[in-house]
Input
Amino acid sequence: MTTEQILAEIREANLSYLMLAQSLIRTDREQALFRLGVSEDTAAILGALTPAQMMKVAGGNQLLCRIRMDDDLVWNLLTSHGKGSANDGMSRLHASILMAGRHKEAA
Output
């Protein structure tokens, strides 16, 4: 993959992320704050962006979204393989609870 192809993929991912974020914010603000992991101020900015502004912001060379799961416990819960579907559901629930707690701490 060339540098130009990577940059095009980043721009596409950024635009998709901005469109999803704006849709979530306009549909259910509280849910969006939790799912996106953004502050109220950031949500207000994202919700008010015009299509032209979204294109401009998405056109940068840096990804706008980031992976929020930054510890081994959450990753292990989300990626546990071969433990059965019942345990898989419990692992995902446990991971969601941990991430929700971290969202509240950050807010």
In short: Residues 72-106 form one domain.
